TrEMBL record:
It comes from the Eukaryota. Pfam families: CMS1. GO terms for cellular component: 90S preribosome; nucleus. This is Cms1 ribosomal small subunit homolog. Residues 31-46 have a biased composition (Basic residues). It comes from Monopterus albus (Swamp eel). Gene3D superfamilies: P-loop containing nucleotide triphosphate hydrolases. InterPro entries: Cms1, P-loop_NTPase. Residues 1-101 are annotated as: Disordered. Residues 9-18 have a biased composition (Basic and acidic residues). PANTHER family: PROTEIN CMSS1.
Length: 291
């Protein structure tokens, strides 16, 4: 009996101990579970708050950017972009300027400017042309024939006295072959029985022109400075009989350029004047007129 009571007591004590341990374990589990249940919403709250902060920052950035764009647009509207000014061409300048008749001073300035870096000071003084070297200039009211009648009143007598070959009495210089043809047509009421010759390079070989000048007496030559200079160099043309040199100074082409506004024509003209024209003017043999 005593053993049985001892066993029952032991079992009772063991059960009570185990029950207490189990209760403690359960109590420990319950807070953890509660803690776990609490942490999940806290994580969600953190995530949502972080997202909210990010969205606020983005919205703030947008708010900052939008006014800048508006300000930039407002500045563009108030201050429109300046367009680059196109460089004015010779045509633009001449189109706005009033046509003025050429004068001896214009030609003298052109000669001085061209030879300023090519001649010494003493040599430049020799290039100066006196007023007696010039004929009266066209005042933009004359046709070619009326102008020539004014500067050569005794033309009928002069042309009869001219008998030299390879030389002309009157030389008219212009900018192009087409202009030379126009001027030859305008000579009809002035030239009388005088013979005129075309002195330009278009469709005419220089050898043909040399033969034509050597073949018979020619009174008037009309052409471009480049071809006339080439004929003088080849001795197909000489200046012995030349008395009048007329420059087609005031005429303008489709681009409103005068003869001296075209660089290559101006260069050829300066070479032509240098080869013997200026010397003849200083010796009072050649007179220059600006038409």
């Amino acid at each position: 009996m005593g053993d049985d009571l001892g066993d029952e007591w032991w079992q009772h004590v063991h059960k009570s101990d185990t029950s207490e341990v189990e209760e403690e374990v359960e109590q420990q589990k319950q807070p953890r579970a509660k803690a776990n249940t609490k942490t999940r919403p806290e994580k969600r709250k953190r995530i949502t708050t972080e997202k909210a902060v990010k969205t606020k920052k983005k919205n703030a950035q947008k708010l900052c950017v939008v006014p800048q764009k508006k300000e930039a647009e407002a500045e563009e509207s108030t201050n429109p972009k300046k367009k680059r000014k196109k460089k004015k061409t010779i045509t633009d300048v001449l189109a706005t300027s009033e046509p003025k008749p050429g004068s001896p001073v214009d030609l003298q300035n052109l000669v001085t400017q061209y030879f300023s870096d090519k001649r010494s000071v003493i040599e430049q003084e020799e290039l100066e042309l006196q007023g007696s070297c010039f004929l009266s200039s066209n005042d933009l009211t004359h046709s070619l024939s009326s102008y020539l009648k004014q500067i050569c009143p005794k033309w009928a007598k002069i042309q009869k006295q001219h008998t030299e070959k390879s030389s002309v009495v009157l030389l008219i210089i212009c900018s192009s072959a087409l202009r030379a043809i126009e001027l030859i047509k305008q000579l009809t009421t002035f030239k009388g029985e005088a013979k005129a010759v075309k002195l330009f390079a278009k469709h005419i070989k220089i050898e043909e022109q040399v033969k034509l000048l050597q073949k018979g007496v020619t009174h008037i030559g009309v052409g471009t400075p480049g071809r006339i200079h080439a004929l003088l160099e080849k001795e197909g043309l000489n200046l012995q009989a030349l008395r009048y040199l007329v420059l087609d100074w005031n005429w303008r082409d489709q681009k409103l350029r005068r003869m001296v506004d075209i660089p290559e024509v101006k260069l050829d003209l300066m070479k032509l004047l240098e080869i013997g024209i200026l010397k003849g003017c200083r010796e009072n043999k050649i007179k220059i007129g600006l038409f």
